[in-house]
Amino acid sequence: NRFEIASNGKATLYNDVGIEGGLEVDGNISVGGTITYNDVTNVDSIGIITARKDIHVGAGLSVVGVSTFTGNIEAKGQVKIESTAPEFYFTDTTGDPDYKIRKQSGHFMIMETGQTNDTEWRFSIRSGGTINIPGNLDVGAGIDVTGNIDITDGTLIIDTTPNSPNTNFGLQEA
Prior knowledge:
The chain is mostly beta strands.
């Protein structure tokens, strides 16, 4: 049998079916395999969408789960990452350290990924505005400070050019 109509009115077609012209369906279409189609303007899909070229979204796009993009991603306007501890990863393929930008508990941090402890940050701005750099800070130009420089549990080293007329240094007791 290539064609069967059950007592409930359901028609079953076996093997391939070719339709020349149009097909109108008043109800839903359920497919257990793959649909291949061209020149489509509206798709309502539950599951994975694979597109050979472009996907154009006229309004908002909501994605749940993991999305993988190959090539450039261009965003005009704002990009919003929403979570209790949102993270943005920078991963290269050269074997150099990879980094993530993280915001948690009011703190903004740049961290090296792959660390066993989330305290392995390289730069942070705390919720009160304090900037923390847990390593050396190399500055190629000048640093202008308005206010105090507080050194706790450390040493201040000032390396100047000997006999330079531009070397000014002073200490004041607190």
